[in-house]
Amino acid sequence: MGVIQVQEPGLFTTVQDLGREGFGAIGVSASGAADAVSLRLGNRLVGNDEGAAGLEMTLLGGTFVFPERALLALTGSDFGAALNGKPGELGSSFEAKAGQTLRLGPTRTGARCYLCVQGGIAVELFLGSASTHILSGLGGHEGRALRKGDALKIGAESGAIHERRLSARALNELQPRKVLRVTEGPQSDWFSESARRLFYESRYRVAEESNRMGIRLEGAIVPVPSGGEMISEGVSLGAIQVPEGGKPIILSVEQQTTGGYPKIANVISADFHSLGQLRPRDEIRFERVDWETARSLLIEQEKLMSSPGLIVPN
Asked: What is the pTM of this model?
C-alpha cells in the first residue's frame, strides 16, 4: 500500500468522497466534495469507483511526495500543478514515478482542485463515508484539514496504469456556471413580487466569509418577510436563505440540517458543482427554471457523466 506524504498542505485541503447521505434527521449533513462532478471525473480518469476518496484543495494547493509510483488525476480548477517541474495537465491522468513531487500553487480559475489517485485515499470511514466533516471534527484524516508531515495511505490499485483524459465535450459542457439556475423555494410566496424581481434581476458577489457550510452573498438587499425568521424546518443543499438584513446565503455541503430563515429559491442539482467553484468576489446571478426543466437538466448531465465518450485515451 502506497502513501502520499504531505510536504505542504495548501490553504485548506481535506479528504473528501461523495458524502454521507441519509443522516440529516440526526443532524449530520452529507459533507463530501463541494464540486462532486470534478471528484467523480477524477476518479474515472484513474480507474476508481466514482465515489472513492480524493483530496479537495481550496484556493491554494499543496505539495505532495509519492515514495512509490502512482497514477494521478487533477480535476476542477487550475492550480498550476507541476510534477517534478513538469506541468501536470488538468483533466488528464498521469503517472508519478517513485520519489516524485507534485506541487500546486494558487488557483488560476475557480475555487477548488481535486487530486485523485488510483486506489483512492484510505481512511477510516465515519457513517460509511471518508469525507471530512470539519464542524464536527469527524471523518477524513483525523477529522481535520491536512497539515505538513501528514502521511495518507493509498488503497489497493484497481488495475494497470492507463493514462486518459477528458473529452472536449466533457470539458465544455461541465464547465462551472456563474448564472445559477434555481427553482422557487418553499417560502418564495412569502416574498413580495418586487422582492422576488429584485432577487432575480440583481448580480451578487461572493463574500469573503463564505465556506463549505454556506456561500454568503453581497449585493442587493432583499426585503425580508416576518423579520427574516420562521419556525425551523429541514433545509436542503443549495437552498437560498434570506435572513434578517436581506443578504442571501446559499447552503453548501456542510450546511446545517435545519434552518429558521425563509428560502426564496433553491439551486438546481445540475448546478451544485458550480457552487463548489465559487471564489470570494466572484459575481453571480440567478435564473429561475421550472421543476421539469430542473429534472431534465440533471438527467442530461448524468447521461453525459455515464457516456462512453466522456473519457478518451491520451
From this structure: 0.96
